[in-house]
Structures are given as C-alpha cells and as structure tokens.
Amino acid sequence: MAEIREVKLPGVGVRYEFETEDGKLVEVLSHRSGRREIFVASGNDPDEFRRVLGLGQGDARTLAELLGASQVAERLAELQQQIEGLAIDWLPIRDDSPYAGRTISDTRIRTRTGVSVVAVVRGDEAEPAPGPETVILAGDFLVVVGTGRGIERVVEILHKG
Amino acid sequence: MADGRILVELGAVIVGLAVLSRLALLLGLPTIPLYLAAGLGFGEGGILPIVTAQEFIEVGAEIGLILLLFMLGLQYSAAELFSTLKSQAPTGAVDLALNFTPGLLAGLLLGWRIEPAVVLGGVTYLTSSGIASKLLSDLGRIGNRETPMVISVIVIEDLAMAVYLPVVGILLAGSGAPAAVIPALIAVAVVAGVLALAMRVEVGLSRFLFSHSDEALLLSILGLTLLIAGTAESFQFSAAVAALIAGIVLSGPAAEGAQALLAPLRDLFAAIFFAFVGLSLDPGEIPPVLGAAGALAAVGVITKIATGWFGARVVGVGVRGRARAGLMLVPRGEFSIAIAGFATAAGVDPEVEALAVSYIFLLAFAGPLLVRVGDPITEWLIARSDRRRTPPTGG
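YS: structure for the whole thing
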C-alpha cells in the first residue's frame, strides 16, 4: 500500500494524500462534518490540487464499499452486535468526590454495580487495566464498561459515596 | 421612539449596508472595507449624520465584535490549537516577528508613546481570517498543499490575540508599561489556564448545553456568551477575548449547532460593528495619515509574503505554492479593526485609529486583488528567471 501523508487543517478537518501506482497525487479531504472531498494534483505544480468530487457522509460509505471495503464493514457490524447492550463511558473524578485520593477497591464499584473500571486516565497518560490498589485522584477520568444502568449508579457513587 | 425615527435611521443604515454587500458580491471584493467606508459616510462630519439610533448601533457593534470572536473560537478546539501551535511554532514566530515589528516601529517613528505603537503592531500583525478563508474556498484552494500551513498561521495568530488583547487592555488602562507587567502576566495565566482546563471539560460541557430545539440552543448559547463577555469586562478583562475563549471551550454538537444558528446574527451585528468603527472616526482625520498608511501597507504586503514563503518552504512546498501562501496572508480585516476599535474605546488619540483604519482599508482591498493576480505574476517571474538561468545557445 502507498504511503499516506496526513496533515491536520485546524477548523476544517484532516487532509490525506497519497501517490497512485501511475504516479498521480490524490488527496482526500475529510471534513469534520463527515463530508469528504477528493482532489487530484494539477499538471505542472505538485502543490496545487483540483477538486474532483465532493461526497456526503453516505456517499463516502457507498464509494468505499464499491472500492472493496464491504468485507471490512461486515466484520465491524458483527463486532458491534457482540457488544450490544454494553456501554463504555468516561467518568470524571470531581474535586468533591469522596473517593478522590482513595483506591479503586475502596469504591467497591464492581461488587455494587457490576461495572468494570478498564482504565484510569490522568492528564495525557492512561493506566490500562488498573488493579484494585490503584489510587484515583481528583481530575482523573475512569473509563468504565458495563450496562447503562450500572454506569449511572457508578456516577452517583463517585459523587456521593 | 413614537415618531419612528430610530427605525428609519436603523433601516437606512442596514439598507445602505445591504447595497454595499451586493456591490461587493458583484465586484468579487470583501465587504469589510465597504462597511468601514459606509460608517465614515454616516458619521459625524459625514453625509448623513445619525442621531437617534447611535445608542443602539453602539450596543450592536459591541455584540458584533463578541460574536465575531466567539464564532472564530467555535471553529477550533483547545486541543487542536495547542497541537497546531506545537507543529507550526517556527512559522508562527516568524509571522509575529515580521509583521508585528513594522507597526510597532512605525508608531514609534511617528513619535507615539509605546502603548499606541503596540496597538499598531497588533493591527499590522493579524491576517484577516474571514477574508483569507473566503478566498481559499472561492478560489478552490482548500485542497492545496500550502493551505494547511496558511490556516495554521491564522490559527496561531488568533491564539496570540487571546494573550495580546488583555495585555493591551491593561497597557491602555494607563498604568504605564512597567506597572502593567504583573497584571498582564496574570491575564496570560488566566487565558492559558482556562484553555488547559477546556481540554478536560469540553465534551461534558457540549453535552450539557446541546439541545435538539434550535430555539433553546440559540438562546442558551447567545445568552451565555454575552454573560461571559460582560462579566469579563466588568473585571477589566477583554470581553472579546472572553468570547473567543468561550468559543474555543465549546465544541462538539453544541458548537456545530451554534455555528449554523449564530452565523446570520454574526453577519448582521458584525456589519454594524464595521460601520460603527467608521462611524466613530471623523473623515477629516484620514487624509493626513494616508501617506504613512500607504507606506506601512506596502511593507505589510512584503512581510506577509515573506512569512508565507518561509512557512510553505518549511513544509516542503514549491515556489508557486510559496507565493500563493504568502499572498493569501496579505489581507487584514476584522481583527485588526477590533484592535483599533478597542484602542479608541480606551481613549487613544484618534490619529491611531485613523491610521489603523486606512491601513486595513488598503489591505482589505489590495489583499484579495493580489491573490487573484498573483498566479500569472508568479508564472511570469518563474519564466523570466528560467530564461536567465539557461541563456540561449547560439546555433
């Protein structure tokens, strides 16, 4: 596969560029709204790209399927079904939380709600699969997996104890 | 009120602006300089003095400035801003050095005190993000390789303004340069702190404010923005910057919804704001500063071309793209006016505003023109230098 160059356009989206086997430069501009635009480099200036096509969110999916992504899509759909009924959420630890500064086992989230804490996120760093002795601090985020109901209860526990 | 005079005056102003915006569309020019000119015509000493509606227009102008900056902030998230700043810092620094200095030096050369000179530096520094982004999409350049760098420069300028405006505000408050250092540092720390915090809370905030009812979303976002801006101002902090930061902090579906809903309001009040800046200026102030403004504008074209050339070269773009990037950065507009208007409100000498407005006027016109004629000129220059490099061989 060709090398894909990725550049962010702040406020617009992301710009991807690659060179085809024939040596043509192709660009896909992925707007934040989900719209896609396809550009091709003009003849004499490799930095100037002419717009060929604009695609709505659904169009982009159709085109991708026609280009051979349908198998990938099927697999993804399968995966999604497997986790139907399961919710993942990020929960902030507020300053006034009774568990700020205490360990995960102190909260007894698992026994009380059946929800698992799968990671503790602190600043830019994440601790995946934290043990029961892991200390949580105000300002951390807990990444939790469980039923929607269970997660709602965890939110209450974290705020009120 | 009863004789309908205020409505007539207001209607006349808006109809005037409407005619100008149609004219701008017809000629392919930005509307900002035309609105400024209209303000000059309506104002004191102009053709059609406005009396009754003055108060409404003043408030409208203030709302216009707040909406302009709030919606600018809405386009970006705090994380996006910081990552842009990190990746394009050298170009951002070159931009600041090349484009802030001319205004600052010109102010000092004209014998001004340091505060108005710093204001003029801000005016020459900021590219108009409104004009540039409109040109990028009108000319189909959004896909070009130099475009991410052009947008990054503008984004960094906006971030710089968030720090600059409160500092200038403190300078202009009259405490003098040395005494302003500590409050200025506090202002910078507040801005940085709020933005850093924004990266943590923006998702939840958006979820909290979002509503499927357009009406509810519009009212809550507009109301909150005005509240934040007003509160900031009552604490001697720039209302415009507070609005900018509020826009940055808000992201996700609430921000996208607000962008669509607030755009028409911004267009209306921003037009009033530009006209108001013209309105507050006596046309008689313009001729004496026109020479200086012209010279400064010529320098401003060159320094922005140099900035774009440098930035595009850093990201590996060729000669044509470098020229395009440089020219794209030339237009100055709404935010330079914001700075000038801010300075006037703080009671700076009218000469400062007259020079700033003439400068913006020139470059808001010249910028888009240069962008349009730039390509053929670049081709001609390239052809000429090629010919010189390969002298015709006899035989």
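YS: worth flagging: The two ends of chain B are 87 Å apart (CA to CA).
IM: good catch. Also The mean pLDDT of chain B is 85.
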